[in-house]
């Protein structure tokens, strides 16, 4: 399959992050500055070369013109300075926008960044009433994802043990990650015994609540060669998919726009699911990677549960997934940490390195599966 002309022309040149977990007293801007400094150091370039700053705003305490505050704190006057709000899908969406802007000559080198502090700040946004049905008690993120999971179970015979297999894999990987917020392995028996929440979910089905920040440096492959960037990782493909419907209005609760996003990314990369060696899939709840695997075409619709069972998503399985722990173990900070782990795997320097890691697929999604973005990375140049 032929690749798109833009495939491999853009690279992720640097990555950086703060600690994850409880960071009391830290502002979101201060965390971004720390993560950006780490990403610049990782790329081996000077701050003055940055001429675009793309920012995902914090969910917990939204601020008007937040991106301007970030650029001011960084001491930059960028050509491009958008505030990108797609929920968790914004991280890969920012890579897409940066890539297209670089190719169009609108900027040269972009800094992409995000931080939030719902653990020690406000997590009010995650428990807000949703839609007109809130008056009947349908509120909060957990209940809406629970409805989606119940539908998948009823429609396809997915078992709660399949959800548990996702949690077990992510917790196994996070338990050996020194940077993970939750470093405690989980057995399937422990999962079954964990506290029930909104059916069919147990406590271990839900992601962490985390403070933290992260940043990426994106530039062209040619620019990376000029600057002698030490470990650039090429972007092979990306895609987007969005739905405007609230969950209870959707004709099908078990299919998402990851279908569109994934097809776009695979076509751009000239690859198919069988060419992917490793995956970093958004796992705010355990049902999400199961459905994403189906929508990306790793298995047929309804077979994501069995596909995830028997250790197949663990580091020594068929498709190692979320090798730093994902949102279920490394940090609940949505999305950018998955890109960072994908970069580390493609560089061959991950804490838990997959034996075979040539191509990595990464998913981000936001809201209640309303937004989706896909990224495919190749081996470092």
From TrEMBL:
Gene3D superfamilies in the record: 3.40.47.10
Which Pfam family is one of those matched by this entry?
Thiolase_C_1
Thiolase C-terminal domain location is: 248-378
Q: Which domain of life is it from?
A: Bacteria
InterPro entries tied to this protein: Thiolase, Thiolase-like, Thiolase_C_2
Q: What name goes with this protein?
A: Thiolase family protein
Organism listed in the record: Sphingomonas oligophenolica
